[in-house]
Write a structure and sequence with these properties.
Helix content is about 35%, strand content about 20%. It has helices at about 1-10, 10-40, 50-55, 60-65, 70-75, 80, 115-120, 140-155, 175, 215-230, 245-260, 285-295, 300-315, 330-335, 340, 345-355, 390-400, and strands at about 55-60, 85-90, 105, 110, 160-165, 165-170, 205-210, 235-240, 265, 280-285, 320-325, 360-365, 415, 425-435, 435-445, 450-455, 455-460, 465-470, 475-480, 485. α12 (about 285-295) packs antiparallel against α13 (about 300-315) and α16 runs parallel beside α17 (about 390-400). It is globular and about 70 Å long.
């Protein structure tokens, strides 16, 4: 009743003012709520040293990744890559492929095949680029590519594209418009790439670029800048990076970084390419990969592995990053899939690439237990069933992402070799950073072994989360290729 009398005493003017005030308050509340929501949405952070430190890199072979072989088909799978700890996606060349001198297989060119239907099977090498500024129409459109980058960013991942600076395909517009951009023989003819000894590499489907020409250098930087500035990529994997003069990279990389923080991967193992802070961030652990292959094949032992690791302290700077891998597109196509090369040692060596200083690589199909050589010049398809390797990479990726003792960036966790009583066949080492500790111990031989390990304490088995209590120099028996990853 009192409430009724109060309402009747309000004049129309006062009521109007009250409504205005209430409305203004509601608008302010809505604005504040909107701002709060916007503040809660995480902004995409440009790639930096802390992200790189615990990253897993994934090499995406768009052509072979799906039956469609398109950007869209790969984009749909990007969220799943988070389960594997992937933070950097490296796309194999996305550009159109030259038709002229297109290879079929070996030295056979597509033009040499008489049957038109047979010719269609061969799509050429993705490293014979016809146009740096476009995308391969077989993969989709630039809009499709942009969507791929956007989805990756939304999922906290970074996209680097394969760049081929050493040569172009024979259809490239520079061939006719700027023939002076290319290396020529004594007859004035453009040549395919030549080795330092004067012999050709056998890459007859591509034309060698001449880095003595300053205009060509400028044009190359402009082409790379387009993808950073206009397509928002996060860096490059540079094919045959060692085949390009170092002083080009000393100019190009800082120029690109003025536009955006980017990640640079060199297909090389040349320490000079990573000197200082202005050149490449990471290069291939090619020598390390070959050591792992030969360990798995019984051709080398732990002493050989130790010599390799010791050599890194001499030739590499402390903040250099190496990409560790058991497979990639070259190894798969030309040397064979993982199981063909490493057999029963495959899991042991895969785990090793995650626990060593550096960054581990997953190649398209590895996560799905790929066990065949993918066609390099034609269409193929990887499997799409999650099995044992997916579970393995999921556990290893989570470790890599979260454990400071596995950081492998500019300020990596320490690496300390642990001597055992059987040092030729048992590999053991410790990684540490702050209070975080990891121990990797493995029988890297095809025979059962018994050994002692000078380690004591309570640890967690990283693969099954069980507790492991070690006594100093107690005896351990490992089956062939058995390994343990212990954390503390």
């Amino acid at each position: 009743m009192k409430h009724f009398k109060f309402m009747k005493s309000i004049t129309p003017v006062v009521l109007f003012l009250l409504l205005v005030i209430v409305g203004a308050c509601k608008e302010k509340e809505a604005a504040n709520a909107s701002e709060a929501t916007m503040e809660e949405e995480p902004e995409f952070t440009p790639i930096n040293d802390s992200i790189v430190a615990n990253a897993v890199i994934y090499e995406a072979n768009i052509r072979q990744f799906s039956p469609e072989g398109t950007f869209d088909a790969f984009t749909a799978k990007i969220p799943e890559l988070k389960d594997l700890g992937v933070k950097i996606i490296w796309l194999m060349p996305i550009h159109p492929i030259s038709m002229e001198k297109r290879k079929a297989e070996g030295d056979l060119l597509v033009a040499d095949i008489e049957d038109p239907e047979e010719r269609k099977k061969y799509l050429g090498s993705p490293y014979a680029v016809a146009n740096y500024n476009e995308v391969n129409p077989d993969f989709g459109t630039k809009e499709d590519f942009s969507e791929l980058v956007n989805i990756a960013h939304e999922n906290g991942m970074y996209v680097i594209i394969d760049w081929v600076p050493n040569h172009t395909g024979w259809d490239h517009v520079w061939i006719t418009e700027h023939p002076d951009y290319y290396t020529k023989n004594e007859k004035g003819e453009i040549t395919d790439p030549i080795q330092d000894n004067g012999e050709p590499w056998g890459w007859t489907d591509v034309a060698d670029l001449n880095y003595d020409n300053p205009e060509m250098r400028k044009a190359m930087i402009d082409e790379m800048m387009y993808w950073v500035a206009e397509q928002d990529i996060d860096g490059f994997r540079c094919d045959v990076a060692h085949g390009v003069p170092l002083d080009f990279w000393q100019t190009a990389i800082p120029a690109l970084r003025e536009k955006k923080d980017i990640f640079m991967l060199a297909e090389a193992e040349i320490p000079a390419l990573m000197q200082g802070d202005s050149l490449f961030d990471m290069s291939y652990a090619w020598e390390g990969h070959h050591v792992l292959n030969e360990l798995a094949q019984g051709k080398k032992n732990v002493k050989d592995f130790d010599r390799y690791m010791d050599s890194l302290t001499v030739k590499m700077e402390a903040n250099d990053i190496l990409m560790n891998f058991v497979t990639n597109h070259d190894e798969n196509a030309w040397a064979g899939p993982l199981r063909e090369r490493m057999g029963e040692a495959s899991e042991t060596m895969t785990a090793l690439t995650y626990t060593l200083p550096g960054m581990p690589l997953i190649y398209s199909g590895q996560e799905y237990d790929l066990n065949k050589r993918l066609s390099f010049f034609g269409k193929d398809t990887i499997p799409n069933t999650k099995g044992m390797t997916w579970l393995l990479l999921n556990k290893l990726g989570n470790l890599k992402n979260t454990l400071p003792a596995l950081e492998g960036g500019k300020e990596p966790a320490s690496y300390e070799r642990i001597a055992t009583s059987l040092d030729e066949n048992v590999l053991a080492f410790r990684r540490k950073k702050g209070n975080s500790e990891l121990i990797y111990v493995a029988n890297v031989s095809e025979n059962p072994v018994t050994f002692t390990l000078p380690v004591s304490g309570e640890f967690t088995n990283a693969m099954d989360k069980g507790t492991v209590n070690l006594l100093d120099n107690q005896e351990h028996s490992f089956a062939p290729w058995e390994y343990l990853i212990l954390t503390k």
